[in-house]
Design brief:
By secondary structure, this protein is α/β, with parallel strands linked by helices. 45% of the residues lie in helices and 16% in strands. The strands form 2 sheets. It has a 7-stranded mixed beta sheet, sandwiched between helices.
């Protein structure tokens, strides 16, 4: 029997690789991925004086463009972001760069999944500063994010916002009149403009997010004292929510996870039962289903989870309709007990590859 081997995926510019841990905790998987990405950058760009981009830029590029993480625990997310920043600094030290010579690294893509600000007064005030075409989208986002702190990346926010996002896209494509000057006799010169043009919802969300973040920054900078503090806190929380939505609108080349397992929380149980009818019996199975959905065709998911999903009858739909039908295993290791510190769970490690279509 002749085995069929799929041709390898075309090589990508390493700067375009996107890796996600949807339940990243303190970032262990992402730290390992950072080290691997440094090697990939070296193989792609070389290490000599002609390397473009130069090695000093690689750590910042990896944090800004390659690695993405989500968690519902703010403390864990802060630790993950700090750990990645420290790992980047170590890489710069290994290059022999002193503090004064190092590029500033100010950005990571570690996001806390939490509800958007619930202050209706500040929300209404902020909306008056937003492009009217984006106001319904912002209102819908705030409402849809209410369960983010419970469901985390299992929240299908992109589906919840699909209608509002489509409406905003259509509205943004309608020319609007802008005053661009005036004639010598004082008459206004009006020009029809298109301020947002996008070929996809992801592109449009990128533009909308940039516009909204600029509005939030301006809003948060208004006034001083207690009112100014409330506005700044509102702006910071809202920006975190928009960052979460942005990550959920992307697809990824690799999804890595050691997700939570067991039953859903009481607050999220009803939502997860509707959103994940085939995997609602255990969180880890739902996370795997979600991770597959976020992959590019032909891309890979690597997971460390409970082994029960591969053997119990109650997971038959997960195995047949999700794994075998959409992302068959390429590697499977039944590791048993004693893998996850003190957790009393038998563990499996596996890789899945999403089918091209």
């Amino acid at each position: 029997q002749v085995e069929r081997f799929d041709p390898p995926r075309p090589p990508k510019d390493p700067r375009e690789l996107r890796i996600l841990d949807p339940a990243c905790g303190s970032g262990h998987f992402l730290l390992y991925a950072f080290d691997l990405l440094l090697t990939i950058y070296e193989e792609a760009f070389g290490t000599g004086a002609t390397a473009d981009p130069p090695p000093a830029d690689w750590p910042g590029l990896i944090l800004a463009r390659n690695l993405h993480g989500i968690d519902i625990d703010p403390r864990a997310a802060q630790i993950a972001a700090l750990a990645l920043w420290m790992r980047a600094q170590r890489a710069l030290t290994d290059l022999g760069l002193g503090r004064a010579e190092r590029p500033r690294i100010e950005r990571t893509n570690i996001v806390v999944a939490e509800p958007m600000p619930g202050d209706s007064e500040l929300l209404a005030e902020f909306l008056t500063t937003v492009d009217p075409r984006l106001q319904p989208l912002v209102s819908k986002a705030v409402d849809a994010m209410k369960l983010a702190g419970e469901a985390g990346s299992l929240l299908k926010i992109e589906a919840d916002l699909e209608k509002a996002l489509g409406g905003a896209m259509r509205a943004a494509m309608v020319p609007r009149a802008e005053i661009v000057g005036q004639t010598e006799d004082g008459r206004q010169i009006v020009q029809a403009t298109l301020s947002m043009i996008a070929s996809s919802e992801e592109d449009f969300w990128d533009q909308a997010q940039a516009t909204l973040l600029a509005s939030l920054a301006a809003y948060g900078a208004q006034a001083a004292g207690a009112t100014g503090l409330r506005r700044r806190l509102f702006a910071q929380d809202a920006a975190e929510g928009f960052a979460f939505i942005a990550l959920m609108h992307q697809t990824y080349d690799v999804v890595l996870m050691n997700p939570p397992f067991g039953a859903a929380s009481k607050a999220s149980k009803s939502y997860l039962s509707r959103a994940y009818p085939r995997t609602k019996n255990d969180l880890f199975a739902a996370f795997v289903e979600r991770g597959i959905a976020l992959l590019e065709p032909g891309a890979f998911l690597g997971a460390l989870t409970s082994r029960t999903g591969f053997f119990l009858v109650s997971f038959q739909a997960w195995r047949e309709e999700i794994l075998l039908a959409t992302a068959p295993p390429t590697v499977f290791a039944d590791l048993g007990n004693g893998v996850l510190d003190d957790a009393m769970v038998e563990v499996a490690a596996f890789c899945l590859q999403k089918k091209d279509r």
